Queue: 2 jobs
Job 1
Amino acid sequence: MDISKFQALLTKVQQKNPLIHQMTNNVTINDCANVTLAIGASPVMTTGKNDVRDMANLADAVVINFGTINDLMYEAMLIAGKTANKKGIPVVVDPVGAGATPYRTRVIRDFFEKVDVAIVRGNVSEINALINDEVKTRGVDAGDVAESKQVIAETTANMYSVTTVISGETDIISDGKTTYGLRNGDLLLTKVTGTGCMSTALIASFAAVTDDWLAASIAGMAVMGIAGEVAKNNLEGHLGLGTFRVNLIDAVSNFENLSLYKHMNLSKLTGVIL
């Protein structure tokens, strides 16, 4: 894909200022809201059962994040997801901790059966848990997975008719027919809670202004990866993770001014599934 396509998407986000309804976890909610604002979209974070239908009707995209899932919140998630489907706006899912517990895995799979999902983003263990009953996830961290990330991404994309994003040293983004590898980011992104959740919020911000889910997913992941590189480069002396976290939001908010998409390390991968 041409870099100018992603720059145009970023400009569109900043011009339209889409409303992103995020039903996310209470660990990362503040960071998700701030990164959404930093890229040029508007966040709303309501999770109440009696509120989400009306809010989803106002939104341009809906994020469903299973990080701190419970029965009451899941009921509200289904309402928001089905409302988004009826309105015709994208539902972006972050299956946090899929494979870690039977309950978590069951409700996440149930959601995919009942709601049309546009994009799913998670680590390799979480995504693999959507298609493989034997997966074990260590909390919200990636466990050991024998299959290649590309196979898992393409299988998931085809099984659920979604664009699939697997985060990692190389991010894998696939719609089941076309697959890309994105190699940006820094190891410090794995040391700060919420960077995955923030990536999902960024993807939804782009998905709100286009029906090209593959491009929206690449655009969002590239912002997080490149911003991570910038944030690390701006650390000085003894400064550590706290400053890195602040630098990360700064880098996202300055993305267009710094023309950072030119630093994308994106490659198209050869398909491995017939």
Job 2
Amino acid sequence: MTLATLYPDRARSVGRQSHIQRPRPQLKDIVKNTTMEKRNIIHDGVSIKIFETDDPEKVIIHFTDDITAFNKIKKAVIKDKGLYCNGISCEISRLLQKGGVPTHFIEQISDTEQLCWKSKVIPMEVIVRNVIAGSMAQRLGLEEGIVPKEPVYDLCYKSDILCDPIINDYHAVALGLVSKEELERIYSLTKQVNRILTPVFKEIGITLVDFKIEFGHLSDGRLVMSDDITPDSARFWDIATGDRLDKDRFRKDYGHVGDAYKTVFERLTGMKS
């Protein structure tokens, strides 16, 4: 699946002229006005904060400019990071919904905020690895950049006390996190996410190296992707140069973190920040 398939009326190009010249989309054309009232904060994270609203079924997610690494030992503020991450997250959510993946996303309501359905998140993270990098490379003594014959899927039990240990399918069921049927559905949706996004990013000159997502249940019991995919939670490598366009630039002191996030934002959304 490609951008042309998902958005047949939108022509894009990377480093070349599009056959059809169209004006770039503007943020004002995408952001929806809302009268939703922001109330108590229910999640006070570093990169995102979640607020209740006057509708008990909906929440407002706010993306910040803060960034941390190594269990919050390393900290910084990256100008406009919240804008880039929110824009990337919203565009990816639109792509996934258009491709048939249910998510908690409703609409973008400002440059750093989005309105979402409130969900009960399953304390389990699914990691998709299209290219070997990060913790898998370190854990198994492999070189970064190896492309496995097929994507690798890991599960992590979300526990701050236990530092989010890797678990297997049997653990997930034994811990009561999911049923066998739910786990099968989660794997199916995760594979669908990867099938949609991998060619989309390839088309804009980026390799989707890996990403992690969580799922949850809406009030009516429906299973949805209850997470965002941004350079904070995924690895993006420039196909032409190999440059890292994600949080690794901060972790490894490569510098130009904001520029990397901006690159992903502008290529994916077609907007100039």
